Amino acid sequence: MVNKIILEEYEINQEEIERELEEIIGGDSLEKIEAVFDTSVKKFDLGTILKGRILGVIGNNVILDTGYKSEGTIPLSEFDSTEDAEIGNEIEVMLESFEDDTGLIQISKRKADRIRGWEKVVDKYKEGDVVTGKVVRKIKGGLLVDVGIPIFLPASQIDVKPPGEIAEYIGTEVTCKILKIDEVQQNIIVSRRKLIEEERNKLKREFLDNVEVGQVVNGVVKNIADFGAFIDLGGIDGLLHITDMSWGRISHPSEMLAIGDETEVKILDIDAVKDKVSLGLKQKTENPWANVEERYPIGSKIKGQVVNIMSYGAFVKLETGIEGLVHISEMSWTRRINHPSEVVAIGDSVEAIVLNINKDKEEISLSIKQVEQNPWTNIEEKYQPGITIKGRVRNLTNYGAFIEIDEGIDGLLHISDMSWSKKVAHPSEIIKKGDKIEVKILSVDKEKKRVSLGIKQLTEDPWKKEIPEKYSVGDTVKGKVTKMTDFGAFIDMGSGLEGLLHISEVSNEKIKKLESVLSIGQELDVKIVKIEPEARKIGLSLKGVTNASVQETQPQEEQSQEEQADTEASEEVIEDAIEEKGGEAEDENV
Questions:
Q1: CA distances to 229, 267, 279, 283 from 257, in Å
Q2: What are the pLDDT digits (tens) for 9-67?
Q3: pLDDT, mean over the chain
Q4: In whole angstroms, how large is the CA radius of gyration of the chain?
Q5: Residue 99's CB: how many other CB atoms inside 10 A?
Q6: Long-range contacts of the stretch 131-134 (C-beta < 8 A, 24+)
Q7: In 74-176, where does DSSP find H-type helix?
Q8: Partners of 237 in the beta sheet?
């Protein structure tokens, strides 16, 4: 520690000096006078704090008389104000060096002030004491606080949370707790954070001792997260979870609160061991589900707004905190809906019927379709079998076509009911999507919500009279190849009538592929070899019929009994397969 010898401890006895001077003067010994003066100043050691009187100010320097044989100078910048540097004022300075090249001693007021300030602070405070001072400037790692001397406030000790730009504290007064006093380095470290934490712990204990569950308290929003908001209750932070903010639906806490907002919350739970407090905002008001059955009786019609859409249905807001679910199955009586977004969108206003209420689970089941009468209720009265109506071809499938006969109601026109005589492979051969056609009601199944339609039934069955009268076995007729299969070719005989030319009836020669002798669109003369009105089949043959376009590679020969038996057997198998396939097609459902 710097030597703190004070001039008063080494004052020269003025009477003794005067007495010696008289003796010296009497003896006219100048050398003796100087020797006495030198003796008096030898007791001024470097680092000594001296008292001096201001003699004047020259430029930026203050001239001071310290009792030494030469004056000292102090930079004017070491004075807090010009009033402190007035002539005649007595101040303390520290002796830094004896006479320099200018003949003046080097002294410092600032260093003397620091030593005196340090002594006062050390005498007044100890570690753990609280001090208040003004932040004077920012240095590396923290701030300097003036309490008579500059003391160090580390940045980490400024506040309980990261302070951001610490330069904002310059010029403000702060109260801190002394953490460490280093007398060797003459340094003091303080903490504002420690003081804040102690104060908050005190307030926390007071809060926990005086609050109880169910009590309503005031707080300030301190922080907001995705799952909720932290509320400063004074000494302790409580968690207001997002699910406890509103009886209604919110996506994020920021929809209701902002940092710094003052709010009134209800104490839901207190964990004194973990110092945790759970808070509620919605609990300040009555739960809207308390008497929900009275406001929304089962069977009543309600209005609401679509607030959310899921793959299984749509949620409709009836009021704040009350939402009902319209399941996808309750959106339409007739439409096949793949996703609720095909019917409703978020924000839509809808009407619905209350189907069910589960108060314990806070669930309400709603129905949009039941607002309207089920069109299938009187379907049998409106569409009786046998009547003819018009409809629009809405869709085509491999087995038939769906015809819209009323709004939301489709009937099935099966492929087998498209033609009496033509073998239809696909509905597109007869109709196309978007066509408006006339159909006949064949049957109505209200329970299964199915309507069967027919086109061919619009005309009389030609197999009952027209075809048997017009064609006979042995007749030769003209026809055109429309399609070929592995077992034979279908021949268009006109007026929509088709006959089957079995592969065995093409030639006496065994043919592996029809394409080798026939082609689509080829015109032929064929012989009718079979007519079956009940099965609606006509069998055709090229044997014995002359066709220039069909060439036989060998002369006709009679089939052996074995070959004829194989042919007849194969025909029966094919015919049975065709009948079975046709029967299945007729029975196939939507």
A1: 8, 18, 14, 16
A2: 333 344 444 454 455 445 445 555 455 445 444 456 666 777 888 888 888 888 877 77
A3: 80
A4: 56
A5: 13
A6: 131/175, 131/176, 131/177, 131/178, 131/190, 132/173, 132/174, 132/175, 132/176, 133/173, 133/174, 133/176, 134/171, 134/172, 134/173, 134/174
A7: 109-124
A8: 232
